């Protein structure tokens, strides 16, 4: 069973830990200068887009896309369980994160992002 380190990580005050923190800080400065997102921001955007897609599929009753949505949710849950998380707890958090009711930013993304047009032109 593999469980990931809890966040936030404890501060590493060793010379090696401080050097690593300094390198990471410099790396983040370079990313900001290049306007390049960090991986966690890309993960968040991908999650938001998926929730918007799921909401749109549900509202428009797009049955052909529901299988894909269910497959993605099941795969996400499987990855969490494989990482050592409790199945029921992971399912509860997953459902909360993909609920458009708990994510008011999603309705705005659908409206502003013209998700319906993006879906229709993707075929």
Report on the architecture of this protein.
- By secondary structure, this protein is an all-alpha fold.
- It has a domain at 39-121.
- It has helices at 15-34, 39-60, 63-82, 87-97, 104-113, 115-121.
- The model has no long low-confidence stretch (mean pLDDT 83).
Q: Whole-number average pLDDT?
A: 83
- Based on helices, strands and strand pairing, what is the structural class? mainly alpha
Order of helices and strands: HHHHHH
Strand residue percentage: under 5%
Radius of gyration, CA atoms, in whole angstroms: 19 Å
Backbone shape: extended
Q: Could you name the key traits of this structure?
A:
extended; mainly alpha; 123 residues; 6 helices
Describe how the helices and strands are arranged:
Layout: H1 15-34, H2 39-60, H3 63-82, H4 87-97, H5 104-113, H6 115-121
Helix pairs in contact: 2-5, 3-4
Task: Give me a quick take on this structure.
The protein is mainly alpha-helical.
């Amino acid at each position: 069973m593999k469980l990931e380190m809890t966040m936030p990580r404890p501060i590493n005050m060793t010379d090696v830990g401080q050097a690593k923190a300094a390198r990471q800080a410099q790396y983040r400065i370079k990313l900001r200068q290049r306007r390049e997102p960090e991986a966690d921001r890309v993960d968040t955007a991908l999650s938001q887009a998926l929730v918007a897609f799921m909401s749109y599929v549900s509202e428009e009753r797009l049955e052909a896309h529901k299988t894909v949505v269910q497959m993605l949710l099941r795969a996400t849950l499987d990855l969490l369980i494989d990482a050592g998380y409790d199945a029921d707890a992971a399912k509860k958090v997953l459902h909360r994160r993909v609920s458009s009711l708990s994510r008011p930013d999603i309705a705005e993304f659908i409206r502003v992002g013209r998700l319906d047009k993006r879906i229709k032109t993707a075929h």
